[in-house]
Amino acid sequence: MTFVNAPIHDLLIRIKNAYKARKIKVLDVQFSNFKQQVCDLLKEYKFISTYEIREEGKKQFIDITLNQVISSNNDVPVVKFYSTPSRPWYISYKEIRSVAWGKGIGIIATSKWLLPTHKAKEQKVGWQLIAEIY
């Protein structure tokens, strides 16, 4: 068991590395509600195929099924991080810009839920920019 300082960074990097290695699944990601919300966003915007939550005793894990990699140039996502546990990156809705000319999403954590950047701009909500994926 390893200690992960930034669990969302770990989740996104594991997904990116699995795509680079042309894997189909990412297994045994420790469960949290925040990670589940990130997986919901990634599924909604077709960065992953599906995910399921599995229990082993008292622990819960997320198993993620990835999309098929056809072209490594176009199918492997690029992940750019902004916030870290020691340095949160806060933005207002006026500072939100499109991600990769509309081809990607930015993940903004508000006080109640996660939003992609384009929806946060429409709702005039800004808070902590976690990462951009395109």
Topology:
Elements: H1 7-20, E1 25-30, H2 33-44, E2 50-56, E3 59-65, H3 72-75, E4 79-81, E5 105-109, E6 114-116, H4 117-122, E7 128-133
Antiparallel strand pairs: 1-3, 2-3, 4-7, 5-6, 5-7
Descriptive report:
There is one protein chain. By secondary structure, the chain is α+β, with helices and mostly antiparallel strands. It folds into 2 domains: 1-76, 2-Layer Sandwich (Ribosomal Protein S8, Chain: A, domain 1); 78-134, 2-Layer Sandwich (Dna Ligase, domain 1). Helix content is 27%, strand content 28%. It is built from 4 helices and 7 strands, in the order αβαββαβββαβ. The protein has helices at residues 7-20, 33-44, 72-75, 117-122, and strands at residues 25-30, 50-56, 59-65, 79-81, 105-109, 114-116, 128-133. Strands 4-7-5-6 form a 4-stranded antiparallel β-sheet. Strands 1-3-2 form a 3-stranded antiparallel β-sheet. The radius of gyration is 15 Å and the shape is globular. The model has no long low-confidence stretch (mean pLDDT 90).
